[in-house]
Design a protein that fits this description.
By secondary structure, the protein is α+β, with helices and mostly antiparallel strands. It has two domains: 182 residues, Chloramphenicol Acetyltransferase; 186 residues, Chloramphenicol acetyltransferase-like domain (Chloramphenicol Acetyltransferase), CATH 3.30.559.10. The strands form three sheets. A six-stranded mixed beta sheet has the order 1-6-7-8-3-13. The chain has a six-stranded mixed beta sheet with strand order 9-15-14-12-10-11. A three-stranded antiparallel beta sheet has the order 2-5-4, with no helix packed on it. A hairpin with a 6-residue loop joins strand 4 and strand 5. Helix 1 crosses helix 3, helix 5 packs across helix 7 and helix 5 crosses helix 9. The longest helix has 17 residues. The relative contact order is 0.17. InterPro entries: CAT-like_dom_sf (IPR023213), Plant_acyltransferase (IPR050898). Keywords: Acyltransferase, Transferase. It holds the Pfam family Transferase.
């Protein structure tokens, strides 16, 4: 990192008014063991003097509405399931400064997100229990970065973006958020418990040395692919389907050059809100997503046409409602327990969550930088390209060094791109 971040002040920000003191039971999705981690992200803004002070004041107001974020995760005395104790203890909030101009560091921040731009550990707090931490770092140029570290147990990407938009509205002078949050975990289906059989010996998943890179796809490139698919198949495809197909195939071709995988898998999360009956209320902000699992023989995928791979993904999406109903009924394997390993690629779609709309009063973000989850999981996050560009920015952490060049070259050929960024 070519600049220094100094944390100036840190404090627990509590709701500005009294809030309900209760134990909030979480939904069947919220309680998934795989969600017991924090999602970290950096939100980069070019303008905003005294942003830390203004956002800190707005945070206390926002927590009146989003009071579970000020609580702590705890275990139920009965069944040991995780839940939220709405204690009002607060969100750990840090103000910091950086001794440089933001524009001089923006590319390095994206390629190697700096831990100093994320909030440090809250003193005296159990990191597994505190739900949200934030840091606002002010740069010499007047720009600032909001670093967010929040528990996946309480909200998905849509819910977190809803919270940040509410926080920004209050910072901008509104007296209340335009969307009132609704906490109704009981609205999410609660399937019958599945029997869990642990094999006699389960080897730990390997730690992978995954390399990070960004790849930009312009809107004309995406539209050209969609037009080609329509001409070749007689049916339309979405931008996501086109991008997912080329990423999965490009990665598989690269990986298969050095190792043989009988089956390769693609996993992405679909918004399950439209599937819930009765419909969820406007303002619902907890987790509500469902895994879409796609698998294919590695050799077939490597040699298939792009049209064939898109069709495979479309077929998996077409099974979404039926698979969700099976999960509701407790039938089949648990879809929330995918096979981990180098043969599985995870995709996460961030470009339509609402992060790009957050405006604290000085304009929307120049960039939203996801901090990758783990070196155990080959993953790619699909985000919006930084304005004024219109298109997609892919944040990839999905291949080891020996496969990186081939993966980028395969993507370049698939999309007729120039050199992919390092």
């Amino acid at each position: 990192m070519g600049f220094q971040v100094t944390r100036v002040a840190g404090a627990m920000v509590r709701p500005a008014l009294p809030t309900p003191s209760e134990n909030l039971e979480l939904s069947a999705i919220d309680r998934m063991p795989g969600l017991r981690f924090k999602i970290q992200s950096l939100h980069v803004f070019e303008h905003g003097r005294e942003a830390g002070k203004i956002i800190r004041e707005a945070l206390g107001k926002a927590l009146v509405y989003y009071y579970p974020f000020a609580g702590r995760l705890t275990a139920s005395a009965g069944d040991g399931e995780v839940r939220v104790a709405c204690t009002g203890e607060g969100v750990w909030f840090v103000e910091a400064s950086a001794n440089c101009s933001l524009k001089d560091q923006i590319s390095s921040i994206e390629m190697k997100p700096c831990a100093d731009l994320l909030p440090d550990r809250a003193p005296g707090e159990d990191p597994d229990k505190i739900i949200m931490l934030m840091q606002v770092t002010q740069f010499d140029c007047g720009g600032f970065i909001v670093g967010v570290d929040n528990s996946h147990c309480i909200s998905d990407g849509l819910g977190t973006a809803q919270f940040l938009n509410a926080l920004a509205e209050l910072a901008g002078g509104l007296s209340s958020p335009s969307i009132t949050p609704i906490w109704c975990p009981a609205a999410i289906p609660s399937p019958p418990s599945r029997p869990f059989h642990l094999p006699p010996s389960v080897p730990p998943p390997p730690t992978l040395n995954l390399h990070r890179a960004t790849i930009d796809l312009s809107l004309p490139h995406i539209n050209a692919f969609k037009a080609h698919f329509l001409t070749s198949s007689g049916e339309p495809c979405s931008a996501f389907e086109a991008i997912a197909a080329t990423l999965w195939q490009s990665r598989t071709r690269a990986v298969l050059k050095n190792a043989e995988y009988a089956q390769v898998r693609l996993v992405f999360m679909a918004n399950a809100r439209p599937l819930v009956r009765p419909p969820l209320p406007t303002g619902f902000c907890s987790n509500c997503f469902f895994p879409v699992n796609v698998s294919a023989a590695g050799e077939w995928l490597a040699s298939a046409t792009a049209v064939e791979v898109v069709r495979l993904i479309k077929e998996a999406k077409g099974r979404l409602q039926a698979e969700f109903r099976r999960w509701e009924a407790g039938e089949g394997e648990d879809p929330y327990m995918p096979v981990l390993g180098y043969g599985t690629l995870f995709l996460s779609e961030w470009s339509r969550l609402g992060f790009e709309k957050v405006n604290y009063g000085w304009g929307t973000p120049k960039l939203v930088v996801p901090v990758m989850y783990s070196d155990l999981i080959p993953a790619i996050i699909i985000g919006a390209a930084p304005p004024p560009a219109t298109g997609i920015r892919l944040s990839t952490q999905c291949v080891e060094e020996e496969h990186e060049r081939d993966f980028k070259e395969n993507m370049r050929r698939a999309w007729d791109l120039g050199e992919c960024e390092e």
